[in-house]
Amino acid sequence: MFMRTPDPEELKEIIFTIVGNMNQGIKQLKTRAQCHEVAKLNLKAGKIAMAASSFDSASEYLLLGVTLLNEESWDSEYDLSLGIYDAVCEALYVIGDWEKLSPFIQVTLLKARCFDDKLNSYLTLVRQLRATGDVRGVIDKCKNVISELGEKFIDKADVDEALFRSESRRVGQLLQDRSEEELISLPRMTNDRKIATMQFLNLAVSSAFAIEPLLAPILICRMVSLSVEYGVSDVSPFAFAGYGAWLVSALKSDFEGGYRMGHVAIELNKRLGIDEGIPRIYTTVYGFINIWKMPFQASLPKHLEAYEAGKFSGDVEYTLSNLYMHATNSLYGCGDNLRDVDSTTRLYIRRCKQSNQEFLGKFICVIHEVALKLMGSNEKSYASFYDTTEERMFTDGREQSKISLCRFILFKRKYVAFFLGQMNAAADFFELGLNYHIGGNGRLVNIIVGVFIDGLIAFYYARKRRSDENRWTDIGNGVLNLMEVWAMSSDWNFSNKLFLLQAESFFLRGEERAALQKYHASIKSAQDHRFIHEEGLAHERLASFHDHYGRRVEALACFNAAKRCYETWGAQAVVQRVEKTIAKLQR
């Protein structure tokens, strides 16, 4: 009687039972051939477990499978050896076990017979470097691999405005006469080396964003060019999303064009059926692009959707990046209750720590610190989660040229100082921030809000009638002009900010009636669009306006309205500051 061989679907159901039984009897294996057969079964079980997003279980099968190989296996069972080492590296990366991961990567790079067989290990190595914050190492390693693949990577010395303009002009010409439908219908990329090049360009972009503001959009342009000329790969949707993020950047402000590219990215990814691409694409589309057209609040559920989708893929960095995007928008853009921000950011930091994604975890710590400061807490998020300080993080970031981290910390300091009424400190942080340019990179919500705060700081100091009045007036007017453009793209997100800046401008010029009208318009717009933190800010500015003209009763009413908004926001430290101002007025 013959036993029936199970079909592939049946094998999936019983593979873990089979392998579990085999592994219990490992000590009974007599020959090298038997060891190799059980190793193959563990490899199969590990891959099935990874496909089901059970990476801890996968790593157990794969690590045990590795113990069944020896030095000679790389000669006699090369494909098995390479396959199981590649798989165990991927599983260990996802669970963040760097101590075990590094030796496996090095063995594969040493034993692989050709460069192409080393590519998976290089991919995992680059992702590990990024997770641990070695962004310069990421760029250097990607540069070496891409050069080996036959593509010229951009040397740091060659990155300048001229190259940036040349690359962007070339992509603009390639896309000029192509409709969205044509881009979504582009054929599949078939050249293996071009596909690999796209993967490493894709990995280099986020690190370039952190330390080389002009390099990131240049790399994105290269990815778009390759996609149009050679067909689309699994990461092409991200390339179009990244290009859209550049279109809405400060250098272009083409909001319609960026929105169009974001739509192309999402629809192309649907057509290709790349579920693991969702975290990366949603980070870019909903974090950088749609915030210029759609309400800030509309992006929040999309980032959580991407996080949920990413839990079933191996893209840990961008899965967790959506939590960072969610926290940034929730705090700065939407003005969500600070107690909620406190609890969610704690959860997000812990999730980063569980995956050993230290770089992202520390960024979220900065957001958590803002919430703690405004709530009046003395807790230090950096010390609680990473046994470090903000000053140490900033110093390390400056020494390692992590421009985005330094800029993020300086904005945090400026934002907190501004709301706590420490205007000299806020102005100092504004000046320091000028040293950390964003270049052609996309702008997150915190950058947008930072520009708004800069305008308010500028008009405040222009009213001081100091020797630098003209400079501050010019800065304020520059921000006002920007906000007029932005409000045409999204009335929801920017009208309250525009009205408040206009009110401050009229206040500066002594146009009392016009200023009063704009203050009230800002308050109503913030109420209508549910920006409680900025409603409080508008009430407070109006209170200062009334106080300036000696209208104490009106000023007190507005300060109390501001206080109520800040209480709803959960900003107890700001409430206490306003209460002191109210007490002085009541004397």
Q: What is the radius of gyration?
A: 27 Å
Question: Roughly how many Å apart are the termini?
Answer: 102 Å
Helix content: over 70%
Q: Which of globular, elongated, flat, extended, rod-shaped describes the shape?
A: elongated
What is the count of helical runs? 30
**Helices and strands, in N-to-C order?**
HHHHHHHHHHHHHHHHHHHHHHHHHHHHHH
What does the largest sheet look like? none
- Strand runs, count: 0
Low-confidence stretches: none
Overall pLDDT score: 92
By helix and strand content, what is the structural category? mainly alpha
Roughly what fraction of the amino acids lie in strands?
under 5%
Structure overview:
Helix 12 (215-230) crosses helix 13 (236-247), helix 18 runs antiparallel to helix 19 and helix 24 runs antiparallel to helix 25 (469-489). The mean pLDDT is 92. The chain is elongated and about 95 Å long. By secondary structure, it is an all-alpha fold. The protein has 30 helices and no strands.
Question: What's the arrangement of secondary structure elements?
Answer:
Layout: H1 8-24, H2 32-51, H3 55-67, H4 73-76, H5 78-95, H6 98-111, H7 115-131, H8 135-148, H9 161-175, H10 180-184, H11 192-211, H12 215-230, H13 236-247, H14 255-272, H15 278-289, H16 296-310, H17 316-333, H18 338-354, H19 358-375, H20 381-386, H21 390-399, H22 403-419, H23 423-433, H24 445-462, H25 469-489, H26 491-508, H27 512-528, H28 532-548, H29 552-569, H30 572-585
Helix pairs in contact: 1-2, 2-3, 2-5, 3-5, 5-6, 5-7, 6-7, 7-8, 7-11, 8-11, 9-12, 11-12, 12-13, 13-14, 13-15, 14-15, 15-16, 15-17, 16-17, 17-18, 17-19, 18-19, 19-22, 21-22, 22-23, 22-24, 24-25, 24-26, 25-26, 26-27, 26-28, 27-28, 28-29, 29-30
